[in-house]
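Field guide to reading this record: the first block holds the primary sequence, the second block holds the structure written as discrete tokens, and the final block holds curator observations. Each block starts with its own label. This record concerns SDR family oxidoreductase, catalogued under organism Spirosoma terrae.

BLOCK 1 — SEQUENCE
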Amino acid sequence: MILVTGATGQLGAAVIHQLLQKVPSSQIAAFVRDETKAANLSKQGITIRKGDYNDINALNYAMQGINTVLLVAGTDEENRVSQHQHVVDAAKKAAVQRIAYTSRAMKDPATLVNQLMKGHFQTEEYIVASGLTYTLFRNILYMDAIPQFVGGNAVFERGIDLPAGQGRVALALRSEMGEAIANALVASHEGNTTYWLTGSESYSFYDIAAALTKLSGQSVVYSPAEPATFDAQLIKRGLPAILAGRITGFITDIANGQEDLVSPDLERLLGRKPTTLLDGLRLLYGL
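BLOCK 2 — STRUCTURE
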């Protein structure tokens, strides 16, 4: 049986959607905080196990009868590492055959500006040290996040103003990452594996602006901002200074080339080319 944590979140739901097309629902379990949000999963025959990453007893119970557990990264960035460790400990205690983790694709974790991102690699280290057989999915930035980055439909009026410089990202759709992860989970596995789930090509925000211009027929201009200026603008809009710093740091890491990584792993797991930037933005914006 495969246990998917964070099963009602966007990535967890995408993985389960694909698993249902590959294995009987009786072979899937979902670890969720809110059972009401998992009602649709239960109706499809998926086993629901309730709890959160801080609930040791719930985690221990959730691991019973599980062969493979997919640990979907938690959203509590401050406490992420300790929460992930609880999941790994429960998996080890239950003698789970394999643990998989949704990490992040970064070129050099040691030089990240956004320090909270390092929690992913600390989790990886803990998994490796656990002695469990593991599969690590190092995921690139979702293409789905681009509308949020550029201000949704307002981008067609205001353009793009971010401190990303000429940094490039091999963007990929969340749905295709979910499909690739599901394919890897159901495949026969031997030993430890790390997948880099990226698109087939990396793109800059100049490329994103050009694609939006082509799709909409309206001129979209990307104007690289200075990090300090961008950070001040976020604070002026009402964001707490700590949150503003995290956002600026995240985008500065893009400027520094942290996500300029291209791997064939996503294409191999999908069995086809990942969706291109133009087609992905067309889908996301309904253009």
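BLOCK 3 — OBSERVATIONS
The chain is about 45% helix and 15% strand.
The CA atoms of residues 167 and 256 lie 6 Å apart.
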